[in-house]
């Protein structure tokens, strides 16, 4: 079995329905990954250890999804110099604005590459783009994916134009 | 020299002008304290170690101030079961709303006792109130402080009423 | 019957479904408590009286939950020097942002230890942490609770990893 | 000296620069008033007593200005059935949004007539409008004031039009 | 049939489910009222005419409810010096924050007495409080209403305490 | 003197420093305009009359700037079927968010073409674009303006690139 | 078949339920239009080409609806000097506030005429108002539409008044 | 001269004071870069061309800073599959919240790696982290940078502790 290039972490198993969309995109793009629950607050030692050892274990990009105070991506970023992609999750009364601010407003020197609220898919596409600077075949796959998206949308636009007539 | 009962932490020395107001209140109330810089992101190991050993070193309340993503109080709370008071600091474009949400919206089981934005004074008064359940003389001091506040405000009100005549 | 250490107040019986989660946590942690309805606006004298007499009746921590303008925790804090934990409740069109601001932005000298919106569970855990500085067995119970949480989460992470294979 | 019809309260003497604009308008409109400092949190008994006795002392409208958690108008409203006008004040990091929400989002049965942030002038005009239902000469004065405002604005518009030519 | 003292206006018949709560309170309190649809944007002449003639027709308080841009209360206030109570209604994507800001942030000289979002009940209670400065029996009715509210809430608190035992 | 094609209105002369930027753009683009102060609240009849007669007087586009509750553009739109461009102005504690919501969230049937906060320049460019569907020379002028903007920006980019070397 | 005067674009076929309301209004008002899917991000070349050629193909007004980052209207405006009406759509966790800001806050020189969130109907009415400066019969149609709206609303108001009796 | 690995773009030369901080960090880390002004709205063709040709010219990471509607990063991302880092800039009345939402809330398939408001430094550090998966010496440099940061902060903490004694 292939060694994972991407690690997907989430603060709680209730985050899985959103975060597994990242896994699905990676699978489609042929990227090996691993997925774990690791809370900044409830499993702080595991989280630190995971982040610290990620590079030496061959991980090249980390994706972390969390809701509310959403410290996970930032805490991971504190323990590694690998690129960390943060996915703010919609949950609780503030519906993800809290998680967005907690994820994106990092202090100088410890960046988190933040995607939109519940943007797990985009976290995976961003991981692919990052990997594409090292693996030329990924650049090719991304180009094909974009072309396919275009064709689908153009097809839908044609259907819409016909319907109107 | 007396062993500190309260630990005051801040993410950066630029937070000092606000956070030292907590120290001033504690001094006035006769509470011993220590003050350190300890960033959740730039000094994660120190922060974890400080929090883990706080109770055994005799610390009874922790105060943590941070701005922007403001993970400090939450990360400290993850490593101790002492009460942790979070002070969201006003800084950057979001002016403390980010820090407020990051500090207060903690997941179940790991609370942070959050005070208002830049509310370092209130963090110290809250620390005194917490200590007052154990140290009866602190309850007395707080009562005196409240009485003094009342007298000052009533005096100001009298001045205002006279001015108007 | 044991004298209560914690008083839980709420502004309306419609707040009970959230606020009784605080009671459940206290029960699990073996803390005696009492629970009352007491509105800052509709029962102001009772609220003031309750707060003023709480310490002498043996109460050590107060928890107050309210929605919208949410003055309850602040009004209680005005009448006691015991630590007051405020739970902003989600209700009405602003969904708890109003209650959060009303609860946390207290003036200097009268702090409210604010937890997240609908964070009744965390209010109870925070009460336990506060009590732990006086009652060593509570420190032990909190440590056990944290360990149990870790084991549960690690178990869930293992299930997730297996599922993926 | 004339018995006051309007009571103006503020939570702190730092609120005076804004709140005295209400006094100025009342003076212009020939309404007798009194002005006091009375904090919901730092002078709770005085505040309750003031509100409870206001009607019997001949007060007909109350104006209360406060910033941040801004419980003052609501607490006054809890102790009287006179109309209470709340002025949310801009102060602190949230710049008055907190005070606006705390003042306007009152529970059913205890309304606060809220004006804009720092809207002390409008609080006074609203007091005049309320008094105008009882005192016909006030209706006349308000009509004159509106006419004067119109003439001033029309004059300014003419100046602007000429400038452009 | 009695001449109405209060006029209730709303921008659309879709606002009726909220706005008729104001009518219900007025009925309970024995205040005669009339209720009309009158849009600031779709019926501007009617709205202006209604406001201009309200005082001479014996109306003493106006209540206006509107959602989104919510200009209704402000436009009515522009055409009368009677007290105008604005009820910002929750509707559309911004869920009433737009209506709150549009209603409360009036320019100097043209106040709107704003209540909470969807606060139609409180608009009616505020109308009663305003009328109470002129009609002593209304002061009595409001006092009775407050006492009844207190008894109901105290009864509920007793039930809650028993349940817990 | 040429009959104005565009009417620029503002709620107060304090809005002039922003709103005259619209006039400057129109002058540059060779569009005749008139500029007046006309408040939705303080000059409601003038505002209505101005809007109602605008089309017959040859006006083809209206620009209205206002801050805070900012009802001006909406009230004008209620009285004309000409296109009305709204400029929300930054003023007061909410810094233009209130004006933006009040201007843009209009009910169905009465649109306001809203530009950014303090976007008086863009209001004028939008007026030119609207006029360009009728006056072909305006389309030409706009194209030239865009080309000029491009050249200026490309020049600045070149300077920046050189500086770096 | 008639050449379209208005082009309606949307970023995704999921936007159709809202955006087709614009089409319905245009149909009612007798304006020919075309409707296409054209994403700023997924079909950037098509979007640019569509905008660049719109004027020469006889299009006079463009309507663009998009949610979340909502760059569509702005990108279209970058490629044409025709008036572009932007419809921010409610979708995702931020429920349209993101789309509103992304659509309305355009830089000087490239305006977007923004309507309310999900305001597709108003986008169409605004298009009609713009066309009315060139096509006098459209001014007539808009006047008739306004009159009809008034009659309907007045009828509803009468029903409401009767119900109350 | 070395071929640039990172392209830094900004929408206007007024963005330079913030964006050149990214350049300074890259220089310190020994990364070659180029810096250009390229507006999504005022130079759309240049922007598209720059993005489309970036990969073939050897660029591996793109950094784009823009304020207000802030479409730049998204438009660049639409034309390349290289990782694009977006820097929302504080400007105008909304002070960067608009730019943050416009940058981060991208549709699926076209991610932008967003950093905090005015977070140009972190954009550069994130670029370094991305490059570190391909260039091992960059991983080393980042590690050294983190260590240096730790030492500086620990030194500051010691100074603070001494001061207090």
Explain the overall architecture.
Eight copies of one chain form a homooctamer. Chain A is an alpha/beta fold and 165 residues long. Chain A has helices at residues 16-28, 44-54, 72-78, 97-104, 120-131, 136-164, and strands at 6-10, 33-37, 61-67, 84-89, 113-114. The mean pLDDT of chain A is 96. In chain A, strands 2-1-3-4-5 form a five-stranded parallel sheet, sandwiched between helices. Chain A has one domain (6-134): Rossmann fold, CATH 3.40.50.1970. The first copy, chain A, has six helices and five strands, in the order βαβαβαβαβαα. In chain A, helix 3 (72-78) links the parallel strand 3 and strand 4 (84-89).
Q: Which descriptors apply to this entry?
A:
alpha/beta; 165 residues; Rossmann fold; homooctamer; 48% helix; 15% strand
Strand content of chain A: 15-25%
Which ranges of chain A are low-confidence, i.e. pLDDT below 50, for 5 or more consecutive residues? none
Radius of gyration of chain A: 17 Å
Helix content of chain A: 40-55%
- Give the tally of structural domains of chain A: 1
Q: What is the CATH class designation of chain A?
A: Alpha Beta
Rounded mean pLDDT of chain A is 96
Main sheet: strands, sense, barrel of chain A: 5 strands, parallel
Broad shape of chain A = globular
- Quaternary state of this entry equals homooctamer
Q: How many strands of chain A?
A: 5
- From the N-terminal CA to the C-terminal CA of chain A, the straight-line distance is 54 Å
Which chain pair has the greatest contact?
A-H, 40 and 40 residues
Structural class of chain A: alpha/beta
Read across the widest sheet of chain A, the strand sequence of neighbours is 2-1-3-4-5
**Tally of contiguous helical segments of chain A:** 6
Name of the CATH architecture of chain A: 3-Layer(aba) Sandwich
Order of helices and strands of chain A: EHEHEHEHEHH
């Amino acid at each position: 079995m292939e060694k994972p290039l991407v690690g997907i972490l989430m603060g709680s198993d209730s985050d899985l329905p959103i975060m597994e969309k990242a896994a699905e995109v990676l699978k489609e793009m042929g990227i090996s990954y691993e997925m774990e629950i690791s809370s900044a607050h409830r499993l702080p030692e595991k989280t630190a250890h995971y982040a610290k050892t990620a590079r030496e274990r061959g991980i090249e990009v980390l994706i972390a999804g969390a809701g509310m105070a959403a410290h996970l991506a930032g805490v991971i970023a504190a323990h590694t110099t690998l690129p960390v992609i943060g996915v703010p999750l919609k949950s609780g009364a503030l519906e993800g604005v809290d998680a967005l601010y907690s994820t994106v407003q990092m202090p100088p020197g410890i960046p988190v590459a933040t995607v939109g609220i519940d943007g797990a898919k985009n976290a995976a596409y961003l991981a692919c783009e990052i990997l594409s600077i090292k693996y030329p075949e990924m650049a090719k796959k991304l180009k094909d994916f974009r072309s396919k998206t275009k064709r689908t949308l153009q097809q839908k636009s044609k259907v819409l134009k016909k319907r109107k007539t």
